[in-house]
Predict the 3D structure of the following.
Amino acid sequence: MSYKKTRLIYIIILLFIIVCSSVNGQVKGRCKDCHTMHYSYEGEEVTYGNQKGPFPVLTKGGCIGCHGQNPSGTENIVVIGKTRIPQVLHNMENGDLAGGNFYYVADGYNPDYTKGHNVKGISLQEYPPKNVPPGFIGGILIPGGTNPSYWPSTQQLSCAGTYGCHGNRTIENPYKSIYGAHHEKDTIIDGETVGKSYRFLFGIVGKEHEDWEYQATNSNHNGYKGSNHYDSINTISYLCGECHAKFHAHPNLGGINAVSLNGITWTGHPADVGFDFVHGGFVGSEYQGYTTYNLEAPVAFENPTGKEKIIDENSIVMCLSCHKAHASNYLHILRWDYSKISTETPGQGCLICHTKKVGK
Amino acid sequence: MKGFYLLICCILVMFLSLNLKSEGAIVSDDCEACHAIYPGMMEEVALAKSKYKYLLDDSLCVDCHSSSDNATIKILGGIKVPIVHNTLPPVKQLAGGNFYYVTKDDRKGHNLGRIVSMDKKFKGFPPGYDRKADLSTIGYNPEKPLTCSGSNGCHGNRNVANPFEAIRGSHHAKDKPIDGTTTAKSYRFLKGVKGYEDDEWNQNASAKKHNEYTSDIDKLCANCHGKFYKKDFTGEQSPWFAHPTDIFLPDKGEYAKYLKYDPDVPVARQKVFSSPSEEVKPGEDKVTCLSCHVAHGSQYDSLLRWDYDNIYAHEGNKKGCLMCHTRKQD
């Protein structure tokens, strides 16, 4: 075979791979797998899990009906036809996806509200004072507009919308806020639309692992967007800061004084701070000891690819370095049991970054 | 000269025939063509026992509009008769579909009592029935079978229980204009419904030649399936809770691309058209029950116009749901 022919075949294969991988996020398959036209099948109402409809956008069970199809089941990714649906509420052992698992806080399944976000439809509203997001600041800049001026005390967290995380948070109705995103071409995650935002978190960018980090490796994982300079609002930590503003040093949010004394001594753990930003510099710091990407303490990057294996001065600490988004098996949605992290547990929890605290 | 007179006579006969057919009424004086095609139909009964001279009931509708072959239009007494029930698989079925399918599967058609037994799943209750939405003064009676017309049917006057009486005389009455004022002057004898009737009942439908519907047809469906029509069930606007009907096809987004009429996905017009239009006007035309369903029976579950099990999003399909939901074609 001539060189030209071989090269042509390689190019075709490469194009095929690019095309196949680039449309992964757009839901494919039968309409009926996700939608019911009249909330009726053979004369009976179509209920899903514990949810009773009819449901917005003609969905079979709304967000949770699709993404929490069987809370006691053991599937973390449900496959229906050509559609693969990540489950945020399930009981699969070692199957928690990147965002965690609402199973730990789900009513009816021995919930512990300290372990996760209390999302409407899964848990009851959290008790005061945590009925409003800790650190909330009203009226701050968010992608597409501003936060509500305050969080009503009876307003429960929802999956999407103004009082949720996903979708366009300037739109209160959760379903309107995410409307159409599942059908949008998301070849490029640029945050311009909900569909083209990282995990439909409007305005946030990043690289999405194709299995939502199930069986992810240290070189194939979600790629989280971070920013070392507090000059962008498209980082995953900024999204957290939209509700927990006082924990983030971005000037739009809590500001540097919210987490530090004069920008030097931290009073709260920083997020969106790079290892090269540490006091005294990266070289010689304990963070230099964190060398290989660890799924237990992920870091963000300015331009994430999801393939980063090397941790260096360009790596950025983020909220998700310590926490999960939905719920975890630990207090405060942490990735580990903070009460058991000590200097005698090297390579675990906090000590994955704080490598010099080992053995002291 | 004799030939000239013969020609004049022929032209007159043709003119009269066309003129009478355009009225839509049955013009043949061959009464027996319709009234005596089946044994017993012309048997006289004592007037004291019946309001009618002849033993006629719902079976007349079915017997006349059925065929033992697969043709969907038959000629009876020189008149074209639309077939709604073939005993063989219909070829080029008409706009309302065909009751052939419900004889094979309950889910594929309305269980007309004269053709099949009561639906095993619904047991006589129309899905989504809401008495408040049923405009009939009598209301649907689930204890009795579905009939072609009358209060337990669709055609004729639904304020009349007897199916024959409900439509009696309509075939012989003046039926123009179709303004819904009488059963005869209603679209397909669906009393109160306005529309434009294709002269072949959509047998050879195309973008340019087809029935034209109005929203009246949705209101008719709502008599028996009111829950699916009510806004407190479907929602007032997007995001809908159930598929809406009798709403304007949005003139923005993916819907704005449905511009050429497809008889497989019809829309309803705001006013009665005097002739069919091949144009769909998002923002002006409406989504109707018949956009997705047929009235009598289809080869698909829920009387759908297409196999919902095989409508795929984002896989290059362009038909079915995706005719309106064009964004999911790509």
